[in-house]
Amino acid sequence: MRRCDVAVVGLGLMGAAALEALLRRDVDAIGFDPLGPGAGQGSSHGSCRVFRRFNFENANYTGLSDDALAGWDRLARESGREILIPRPVLEAGPRGSEMVRASRRAALDNGRDAPLLTGREANALFPAFRLPDDWDAVVQEGGAILLAQAALKAMRAPAEAAGRIVAEAVVALEQRPDHVVVRTAGEAFRADKVILAPGPWMTRLLPDLAPLLEVTRQAVGWFRPAQPQTVGRDAFPLFILARSDDDIIYGFPDFEGRGVKAAPHNHGPEADADAWGPEATDAELRPVSDALAELVPGAAGPIIERDICLYTNTRPADRRPDAGEEFIIDRWPGSRLIIASACSGHGAKFAPAIGERLVRLALDPDYRAEPFFRLSRYSAFPEDS
Question: In this predicted model, what pLDDT tens digit does every residue of 92-114 receive, in sequence order?
Fold first, then answer.
């Protein structure tokens, strides 16, 4: 039976970040993933994600963003790849928008100026937009297009070069007092610790986690812009527009020459972990098409590409209440397992920071992740989990 100190199950952005961090520490680690970095499944597939320095979802994320930015910069230097394309982030909604208020608060709490703009002022900055004049808006610096596939390849490269990736699915974990047996269809491995980061397949390996998680189907589209000159890489921001709390879209500049990528920010219907088809329908993308036509006419146009992503969302916590859609980064009680469920649609940008936390959980018995990531925020788990 092949042995290692730490096994990493799932090599999307979270798992790959953890495996790369382990190998940088010269830890004997092996990663398991049947999907390569260009595969069309897995919550880390696709060319790009949004990086935001300031996050309206959770005021605690700013420190995580700082850690992640340092990690992305290091990865770019060491790999020689472009990982982040700096772009401002425009966030806007009707007057009094809580999303805009929370985003500004996150910046102001960290000593950054974040002037409240009107929709008219935002339109003057970025001519592709036609926001209502009285909307609230904020333009945050420190954002970037995260080149997710380039990052994934860079993080996996050291493990691939060292032969530390097993391109097979893990079918079972057998927990023993002093180790864990990691089984694929054809082989068994003995690991002192196991980091679990399999995205939507998490509950296949850890069924007891199922009550805390739900997987949702998320539609993504690329739109042929009506005014290409207004939506290019250097002219157009990343954007998040909230027509209401349950009607939010986000999007990217046309930085690849394949159109403006845009998608609903709100969660779609529940789905099975293997439900990667059919492709996104016109009906699923209609809220995006309508919002672009109304608010971003420079980007509006026919759908020219479409995709599906799966989010893995936490359900609301009760002991230390939160609204759900958060991350779990913690040790599984009474075991040698460390779990990472951070695929709620806003986790990708934090991958280097989350990878470091997972490694510390595996190697340092005194380390604990931040309280808002722990299982103990749910009353089904002991306070000291």
Answer: 999 999 999 999 999 999 899 99
| Longest Cα separation, the chain | 67
Distances from the Cα of 314 to the Cαs of 147, 192, 198, 329, 346, in angstroms? 25, 27, 15, 12, 12
Q: Is residue 20 classed as helix, strand or coil in its secondary structure?
A: helix
Q: Report helix, strand or coil for 172.
A: strand
**Does one domain contain both 357 and 285?**
no
Residue 133 burial (CB < 10 Å; 0-12/13-18/19+)?
exposed
Angle 312-318-324 (CA atoms, 0-180°, nearest 5)? 25
Q: What is the amino acid identity at position 185?
A: A
Instruction: Record the tokens describing residue 18, joined without a space.
Output: 């953890």
Average pLDDT of the residues in 200-223: 96
Pick from 252, 241, 247: which is nearest to 287 by CA? 247
Asked if 179 and 328 sit in the same domain, the reply is yes
The full DSSP string for 89-149 is: EEEEESTT-HHHHHHHHHHHTTT-----EEHHHHHHH-TT----TT-EEEEESS-EEEEHH
- Asked if residue 359 and residue 225 are part of one domain, the reply reads no
Closest CA to 241 of 299, 284, 301, 295: 295
Q: How far apart are CA 369 and CA 328, in angstroms?
A: 9
Residues 159 and 260 in one domain: no
Q: Round to whole Å and give the CA distance between 250 and 238.
A: 8
Assign 3-state DSSP to the chain and report helix, strand, coil percentages, each to 5: 30, 30, 40
Q: How far apart are CA 137 and CA 133, in angstroms?
A: 10
Nearest to 59, CA basis, from 108, 17, 112: 108
> According to the 3-state scheme, what is the secondary structure of 346-377?
CCHHHHHHHHHHHHHHHHCCCCCCCHHHCHHH
- Is the overall model pTM greater than 0.85, yes or no? yes
CB atoms within 10 A of CB 80: 7
Do residues 20 and 132 share a domain?
A: no
**What is the distance between the alpha carbons of residues 12 and 33, in angstroms, rounded to a whole number?**
8
pLDDT digits (tens, 9 = 90+) for 269-286: 999 998 888 899 999 999
